[in-house]
Automatic annotation (TrEMBL):
SUPFAM superfamilies assigned to the protein according to its UniProt record, in alphabetical order: His-Me finger endonucleases
Species per Swiss-Prot/TrEMBL record: Anabarilius grahami (Kanglang fish)
Protein name from the UniProt record: Endonuclease domain-containing 1 protein
Cited PANTHER family: ENDONUCLEASE DOMAIN-CONTAINING 1 PROTEIN ENDOD1, ENDONUCLEASE DOMAIN-CONTAINING 1 PROTEIN-RELATED
One Pfam assignment: Endonuclease_NS
Length: 287
């Protein structure tokens, strides 16, 4: 049975907005997405963020994953493999055609251009115009190390309305601190960045559509000095600062704020591919 499902999968899932993250599971530690049991509602979409490498030959590349709330038109989290140093920046903003137009629409992010009927299930650039909020990235440009990933961060499903001062100063500085912190990682560093919504505030004012962020959070995990080491962050706190906390405490905070149970950002164990099969090690510092 398992084999059959495995064989059918590539034919069933030719698009980018999925019911799970199996097409982009490499984005996650141990190939396992975070567990967010609150989010079973079908307004929550799994986006394997992709760009076309060669559109004529239908070659695309999956670069990271976003869990997206189409009701509040705000992401829940984006998960990515950290990279540095960044190679540049450009600022066109993309939309996700399939969220509004269904799975027959063009897969992969694309400029809105003159496409019609975009916006019912996602935010568009005009939502931000004059709103007083920035498009705050979850997966930030400065955590990418190649051109395609850099471009791919510039999609509106990877952004939420964020206070401009916090975005441009405090959270940016935090992102730089993360770069320094992850420098000593051996192998890949996995990052999950989320947004907790402030359901009382929506933009734009005259036609409230998009829920703004109350705070951003981030969890990192990598191998350092032979130990899996994780670090949690969230901000702004009540004083407009970024706080550091353990992954366990971050999970508890999210459970409390979401009024949910069993939020788990990382898997429990890591399986070492390079060690004789069956060797598993607890992930202490990352959960
Ligand atoms: C999605 O957004 C709506 C509107 O802000 C909110 O009421 C709901 O709780 C959100 N769902 C999740 C799973 O975050």
């Amino acid at each position: 049975m398992k084999l059959l499902v495995f064989l059918l999968l590539p034919y069933l899932s030719l698009s980018e907005v999925f019911t799970d993250f199996s097409q982009c599971s490499r984005t996650f530690l141990n190939n396992h997405p975070p567990q967010f049991t609150l989010l079973t509602d079908n307004s929550v979409k799994h986006i394997c963020q992709c760009v076309w490498v060669d559109i004529i030959n239908r070659q695309k590349m999956y670069l990271y994953a976003t869990l997206y709330n189409t009701t509040g038109r705000i992401p829940i989290y984006s998960a990515y493999v950290f990279g540095s140093p960044n190679v540049g920046r450009c600022d066109p903003w993309y939309i996700e055609p399939q969220l509004d137009l269904g799975n027959n629409a063009e897969s992969c992010m694309s400029p809105q251009g003159h496409k019609r009927n975009i916006g019912k299930y996602q935010t568009v650039n005009s939502d931000y115009d004059g709103s007083g909020y920035d498009r705050g990235h979850l997966y930030p440009v400065q955590h990418t190390d190649n051109h395609l990933s850099m471009l791919a961060t510039s999609t509106l499903t990877n952004a939420a309305p964020q206070n401009p001062t916090f975005n441009q100063i405090t959270w940016k500085k935090h992102e730089e601190d993360v770069i320094k912190d992850l420098k000593d990682c051996k192998g890949k560093a996995y990052v999950v960045t989320g947004v907790f919504p402030d359901t009382n505030i929506q933009i734009p004012k005259y036609d409230p559509r998009v829920t703004v962020s109350k705070y951003y959070w981030r969890a990192t995990c990598c191998l350092k000095n032979n130990k899996f080491t994780g670090q949690g962050y969230f901000g702004p706190d009540n004083n407009g600062k970024v706080q550091q906390l353990s992954i366990t405490d971050l999970q508890e905070k999210l459970e409390k704020d979401y009024k949910a149970k069993n939020i788990k950002i990382n898997d429990n164990i890591i399986i070492f591919p390079s060690v004789p099969s069956g060797h598993k090690r607890p992930l202490n510092g990352c959960n």
